[in-house]
């Protein structure tokens, strides 16, 4: 095998209570990439469609992540990468993570899988460092592992796969405004009250338990964020209205996808997720904000050959 | 049925990362109580052995919890309670919770179980309010539900049962010093860094996932507390030595039981738990501190008729 074409899923990081630790992969939102093994050393981005992003290896997240892998590999050739972006950069559903994870997953596959998924996460995190200044894993972990992931710890990196109840669907609406991840981190407070902390880890425990038990009510009760959402939501136009309309339409919960501006909702069943899509887009239509909106099952396998 | 004799388990609250939200019930450490239905209204403590504690209904946690139940009941008689304390008051393994939970569980049983376990937790919390000034549930929840419990939220009260891997054993050592729960709360900082918060909810998620998956390594990696233990452990003589000796002897983790001074360790298998017992008591023998030490399986049913 010299060349593969892969699907690289969009991802929702944080999932309300799980700030910086939880993420989930989407199935019907994602990029396509073609990775080719070549004799020439290094990583070359030969094609990039769908978004205006740099093709220079050192300025492209897929390039940087790929180089991180090559630095640890004894393979003495290189790779050419074609990236077809369908996830908009800056949307908050893991656009950079899809590219950096896709690059290292595809390269690893073509090399006969010498690296573990955990190692691939570390390589892909270098792409995230380029994109946002922080080598975070909350999008690359679900992109590479699939389903729900918990980053228990960064030092050492410890990623836990959490089961995905089969009837869980995501609705994601992306208002066409730009928030840089780095700006969105700057506005966060660097401390919190012990009282809010206790609520947050109670909810993280509840969310993880709910996912294990297919307990949609418990998942719903746990999708609460007392710490980050109240601050970050101020950057997102119409957030409160979108959230209340999603909940009224039957969503289990609703919150900011990653650092925004996309807003996600989780629902039990596709029909509910479609109702939520309708109610969310109605809000933005009334306010007059341009948007994209997607309904997606949970992607339980992560990146895959297509 | 007019009278029952019951076992009321000791409990470990917090379990390292799960401050104020997690707890677990013990099987071989606990009180005995005899609850009797009588015609005379109210709750009367007719016997109290093993500890010097007030028998006046309004000054006794079992009495106060029992009155909270009676206030919500249409039963027009009363109860007499005999309490045989085996758990030392102030030990940090839920002595007051065993009595208050036992009272309401036994009374509910004799009335034909009109109240749910969640309601019983609320009544028993009134006993905790008397004992420590705070109506907390982290000992009464595991005493009443058995096994591991997660308090996802207090408002509204939401308790989640978490599975208990069958090979999990607890070792608990109680240095004979007194720390009041109220004092132990006062020294806590009322805020924490966002960075520490993220670590803590990562670990809570990991602990819950590890318990669901019988993943002893993950449980072990998650038994970390960056927030409370570093402060509270200063009140407990020899804590660091006890902890390091427990870990060296093979414990999955070790921390403060509730607000202390007892120290707990969790181990995989009884043999390991016994090794940990030996290493812990050796430390206190060298320092010259009086102690009690117990090894116990996890109690998965909570309070039970004996």
Automatic annotation (TrEMBL), chains A, B:
Involved pathway(s): Amino-acid biosynthesis; L-threonine biosynthesis; L-threonine from L-aspartate: step 4/5
Assigned keywords, A-Z: Amino-acid biosynthesis, ATP-binding, Cytoplasm, Kinase, Nucleotide-binding, Threonine biosynthesis, Transferase
InterPro entries listed in its UniProt record: GHMP_kinase_C_dom (IPR013750), GHMP_kinase_C_sf (IPR036554), GHMP_kinase_N_dom (IPR006204), Homoserine_kinase (IPR000870), Ribosomal_Su5_D2-typ_SF (IPR020568), Ribsml_uS5_D2-typ_fold_subgr (IPR014721)
Parts forming coiled coils: none
Biological processes per GO annotation: threonine biosynthetic process
Family annotation (HAMAP family): Homoser_kinase (MF_00384)
Protein name, entry field: Homoserine kinase
Organism from which the protein derives: Costertonia aggregata
Organism lineage string: Bacteria, Pseudomonadati, Bacteroidota, Flavobacteriia, Flavobacteriales
């Amino acid at each position: 095998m010299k060349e593969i074409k892969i699907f690289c899923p969009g991802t929702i990081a944080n999932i309300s209570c799980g700030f910086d630790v939880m993420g989930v992969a989407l199935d019907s939102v994602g990029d396509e990439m073609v990775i080719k093994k070549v004799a020439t050393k290094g990583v070359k981005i030969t094609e990039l469609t769908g978004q205006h992003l740099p093709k220079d290896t050192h300025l492209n997240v897929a390039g940087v992540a790929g180089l991180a892998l090559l630095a640890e590999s004894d393979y003495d050739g290189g790779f050419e990468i074609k990236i077809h972006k369908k996830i908009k950069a800056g949307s908050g559903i893991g656009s950079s993570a899809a590219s950096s994870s896709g690059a290292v997953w595809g390269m690893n596959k073509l090399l006969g899988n010498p690296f573990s998924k955990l190692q691939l996460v570390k390589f892909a995190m270098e792409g995230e460092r380029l994109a946002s200044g922080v080598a975070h894993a909350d999008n690359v972990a679900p992109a590479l592992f699939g389903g729900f992931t918990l980053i228990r710890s960064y030092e050492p990196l410890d990623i836990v796969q959490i089961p995905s109840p089969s009837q869980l669907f995501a609705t994601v609406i992306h208002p066409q405004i730009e928030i840089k991840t780095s700006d969105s981190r700057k506005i966060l407070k660097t401390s919190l009250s012990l009282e809010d902390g206790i609520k947050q880890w109670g909810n993280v425990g509840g969310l993880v338990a709910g996912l294990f038990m297919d307990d949609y009510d418990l998942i719903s009760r746990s999708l609460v964020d007392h710490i980050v959402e109240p601050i970050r939501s101020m950057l997102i136009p119409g957030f409160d209205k979108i959230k209340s309309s999603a909940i009224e339409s039957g969503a289990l919960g609703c919150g900011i996808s990653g650092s925004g501006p996309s807003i996600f909702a989780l629902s039990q069943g596709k029909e509910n997720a479609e109702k939520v899509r309708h109610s969310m887009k109605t809000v933005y239509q009334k306010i007059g904000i341009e948007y994209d909106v997607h309904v997606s099952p949970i992607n339980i396998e992560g990146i895959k050959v297509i």
